[in-house]
Amino acid sequence: MDLILASTSSYRKALLERLQISFRCLAPNITEAPLPAETPADLARRLAHAKAAAVADRNPTAVVIGSDQVAICGDRILGKPGGAAAARQQLQASSGRQVLFYTSVAVLAPDHPAQVETLQTAVWFRKLTAADIERYLQLEAPWDCAGSFKAEALGITLFERINGDDPTALEGLPLILTARLLRAVGLDPLRL
């Protein structure tokens, strides 16, 4: 079996490794810009499927996993900040507010219909002081993380609470959902 994760994300790779299955990673090389009037959930779903489809087109006999995550605070999408200034702005905007994360997973397999689902996770940030934000950014430098935090590490201290169905969804690849979608195409991680 050829299983491919359509991603070059070290976070998603580390998450999928938890399932103890053999896979390889390939870059999907797609454009990730939102479409006009596209909802955050629809954007995450479309991009997860597009990533999987781009890699599946080049590897037609493989089972391909694609995933994408979109964070939204109010009506503003929080992308990967890329640096300290944007991360500071995102955390200031999230302070004391709810941020919604839409994490989608697509599994494409030969002779099976596409499996694509989206999970919503709500995160309530505590009130953050300027000193909290500066210290956090200094310690973790979350420049490549949507929402400017790493929930699997010190970023969890920025929250008051989380509401969601999969504890790994905030990290970028919900493993409960991924395992279920793999089983739907005949690949049970417990039997590989």
Automatic annotation (TrEMBL):
<keyword id="KW-0378">Hydrolase</keyword>
<keyword id="KW-0963">Cytoplasm</keyword>
<comment type="similarity">
    <text>Belongs to the Maf family. YceF subfamily.</text>
</comment>
<feature type="site" description="Important for substrate specificity">
    <location>
        <position position="69"/>
    </location>
</feature>
<protein>
    <recommendedName>
        <fullName>7-methyl-GTP pyrophosphatase</fullName>
        <ecNumber>3.6.1.-</ecNumber>
    </recommendedName>
</protein>
<dbReference type="InterPro" id="IPR003697">
    <property type="entry name" value="Maf-like"/>
</dbReference>
<dbReference type="Pfam" id="PF02545">
    <property type="entry name" value="Maf"/>
</dbReference>
<feature type="site" description="Important for substrate specificity">
    <location>
        <position position="152"/>
    </location>
</feature>
<feature type="site" description="Important for substrate specificity">
    <location>
        <position position="11"/>
    </location>
</feature>
<dbReference type="InterPro" id="IPR029001">
    <property type="entry name" value="ITPase-like_fam"/>
</dbReference>
<comment type="function">
    <text>Nucleoside triphosphate pyrophosphatase that hydrolyzes 7-methyl-GTP (m(7)GTP). May have a dual role in cell division arrest and in preventing the incorporation of modified nucleotides into cellular nucleic acids.</text>
</comment>
<keyword id="KW-0546">Nucleotide metabolism</keyword>
<feature type="active site" description="Proton acceptor">
    <location>
        <position position="68"/>
    </location>
</feature>
